[in-house]
């Protein structure tokens, strides 16, 4: 092994020499000094870069020694799909091989021209966690360095999914109040990757939604996507600003149209979808959220002035850089609650499709006139316990993320339940996978003697087979969300509920490591309706404890109903109607919801196994 010395002068007998590899792809190969590694032969092919220590080419042994010091020879590679930038660094120090001997780090450096390749590396222990890695290559010949920078740059330009222009919203007071700090730490990644950003730091609640609503489609199409630096509520605001005036689809049925006369028992009764489903109603839109669009009818182009912005829109994506209190959307779509991972997935142009629930409030209070008001939810909509926690927690926003623990405990101790009726659409092909067994032991026996059942359900992962399956599209496509096949029927559940929850995704977070529903998928076209019927407080506590446990079984209780459904309707029989939609308050006494499969695309890769 040759130890590099100061003034190291590698002769230039290995010029940049593109040569044909015998196939279609031309290969570039040169010798460089790789910072802290040593002299390598760097090769570029159509997929990426690979390099090998010069010594290991001469000597096939894996290990060598020098002055009694042992080191392992390395060859490695990085694919262009993992490289987000290359930059010429000019003249400067490149370190020779660094190795340790009796606690000391030894190595020699040399001055030369350098360029850096910026790539990502998956953490060995947590593959969903990504880190940047920098490879600095040095050479005495300026031209050789520049040729390589240009070649690598040209290869990166061919990675067509990468964003070039992004609209970035930063919520400075999100989570622990560090939204701006998080963005400032990550902004250099975007500029290094040559992604232009227009940054808007929000001044108030609703600011981002207003910008997204008022921006013209023409202006919007200048961007490859929009990035939210904040929490789930902030993401929800941007999602609604994007969709409310642009997404055109029929509403889900009004519960007033579809529900049957009130029945006393809690048992579900069945009625046929065909009896109730979707006669387009002629509601006029008086909702400020609907910005003048009648969502029940196809839209005429607005005077040909502004181009249509259709959904799903594969080109335009939304990114989320987690800075909030819960960050379930970032966790479910990247597998990590890590701003750096999210930023790297954005600049690399990762893509995952996301189901979105359209929630239509028909009445805010029992006395209100029926008129539709729409919200979109990407993660969760919940009533009862969930609505009460969000109402309570808003009073303690100054506490930061801890407000949820405080509010949750307070609401738990109140142990309220609410009378309501739900109708949900059951899709026959999904039935056996979703509902609990019909014949169950009584509540106490099941709750106190059940062992966690081994789940054989499939969790959503990067390149998920369930989400990529085309089959369900026939049932729940983006433009026609409700199945009209004879394989579906409406079921009813009514009675007193501690909570009603509709999870669009698993809603994993740090408090609930498997989420509310561990096998919910990002893009399968279904919600998971979780109905917690009135039950003794200790049993409810047990359900909540199961939620906080990895591998817990929060749904395996007699008082819990779990229905996988593309649509449901809800009517409260009390005075209250407080919903929690993606962590934001939404008052609704009567509402309905439906899922649009893969309605939006995110800059994310999905959780890695
Ligand atoms: N500059 C601002 N000042 C006050 N509120 C804001 C501002 N910008 C946005 N908001 C509002 O704050 C709400 C909550 O934001 P966000 O979701 O980022 O934080 P969080 O509630 O702490 O996190 P999480 O939703 O993950 O629990 C958003 O719905 C948004 O309307």
UniProtKB/TrEMBL annotation:
Keywords: Kinase, Transferase. Residues 161-363 form the DAGKc domain. Residues 1-22 are annotated as: Disordered. The keyword Cell division does not apply. It holds the Pfam family CERK_C. One of its GO terms (cellular component) is membrane. SUPFAM superfamilies: NAD kinase/diacylglycerol kinase-like. It comes from the Eukaryota. GO terms for molecular function: calcium ion binding; ceramide kinase activity. GO terms for biological process: ceramide metabolic process; programmed cell death; regulation of programmed cell death; response to bacterium; response to salt stress. PANTHER family: CERAMIDE KINASE, SPHINGOSINE KINASE. This is Ceramide kinase isoform X1. It comes from Olea europaea subsp. europaea. The lineage of its organism: Eukaryota, Viridiplantae, Streptophyta, Embryophyta, Tracheophyta.
